[in-house]
Amino acid sequence: METQVTMYGPAIYELRVRGALDASWIETIHIETIEVVNSPDQGTVTILIGAFQDQAALRGVLDRIYRLNLPLISVRHIDKEGCGSSV
Q1: Is 5 in contact with 70 (CB distance < 8 Å)?
Q2: Could you give phi then psi for residue 55, rounded to 5 degrees?
Q3: Could you give the domains of the chain?
Q4: Can you tell me the distance from the alpha carbon of 38 to that of 46, in angstroms, rounded to the nearest whole number?
Q5: Residue 84 is inside which H or E element, if any?
Q6: H or E segment at 24?
Q7: pLDDT in tens, 21-70
Q8: Beta bridge partner(s), residue 46
Q9: 70 φ/ψ angles, rounded to the nearest 5 degrees
Q10: Which of 72, 50, 73, 51 is nearest to 63 (CA)?
Q11: Model's pTM, two decimal places?
């Protein structure tokens, strides 16, 4: 059963960003996992996975990525069973 996402509740999200972000982001924005991969069709992609207090916290991270001028590829909600849904 998929967890219902709300604007005001905690949730885990996977963010994919074109370009490379270093490990300092783990501490800066409380991301749990950061991985940089090379994709044949996307080039260098950073995958960030983290638990966010609410969607306002998620928006704050998205704003920081935007200010770095890095293209956002995708945002995906990850439910507790590990299955995700694209947003």
Answers
A1: no
A2: -75, -20
A3: 11-86 (3.30.70)
A4: 9
A5: strand 84-86
A6: helix 24-28
A7: 887 777 777 788 899 999 899 899 999 999 999 999 999 999 989 998 99
A8: 17, 36
A9: -105, 130
A10: 72
A11: 0.83
